[in-house]
Amino acid sequence: MRPSMLLLIPLTIVYSCKQQPKRLESDINKSDTIKSIEKIENNDQQSHLIKELSSFAETEIEENSQYQKLFLVKTIDTEENIATISLQQGLKLYKEITTSKTPKSMPLFEISGTNNVILLVMSKGYTDVIWAKILIDKTTLEIKKIEFDHKAESEGYGAEFTLDNFENRFSNTKISLTSNTFGLRQNNKLLIKGNQKIDGISGATVTSQSAVAMINTGLQRYQKYFLN
Fold it and tell me: How far is CA 7 from CA 15, 20, 98, 225, in A?
């Protein structure tokens, strides 16, 4: 091998070593940027969910800092164990519900200064997950408000269960913790037995059944919470 070639080999090695830290620094900066973006997105999503819950509870809060005092958040698992958690942890569980994940425990949001609590229930609809927020008076066990949502129910059919016309049928009803609060009538047939009969949505039998069954079983899951 010529002497000139021998000189090139160590020079190449030195050059590569000098360049490597720059690439690592670039990767680190890129990783930090991605993490910063994800943090901002998570904060935006949490802020959106907080405002959504606040609006549903019909409370008026102008400053974000006040949201921390608005809700006392708890969870209840499948064995009915109840625990107090942070607002951020509750919002994370709420987000899992809306993204087709089944959380190990369900969050509930007590509204400070009132007897009201927001419960969340979820189930499988015709094509994907459906869920509902339920505003309940803890002392009277009366449903004050229900709001359904979904991930992929078809427009013009199953998605109609999110309309006020259907949601209002559940309001002003005292819930039962041991039996079906709601029954379902569809095409003059009783598909689900319950204390309060609900007329299903025409052309959306599966979604109607899923929604009513979800409310019934979901409410019974909170039995221990209401009896404490």
Answer: 13, 21, 63, 79
pLDDT given at position 31: 54
H-state helical runs in the chain: 3-56, 67-70, 87-98, 164-167, 205-221, 223-227
Query: Is residue 103 exposed (0-12), middle (13-18) or buried (19+ Cβ within 10 Å)?
Result: middle
Rounded-to-integer distance, Cα 208 and Cα 179, Å = 19
Mean pLDDT score, 29-34? 48
Q: Please tell me what DSSP assigns to residue 228.
A: -
Neighbours of 90 (CB within 10 A): 26
Beta strands 189-192; 71-77: pairing state: unpaired
The mean pLDDT of the chain is: 82
Residue found by looking up tokens 């969340």 in the block:
120
pTM > 0.90: no
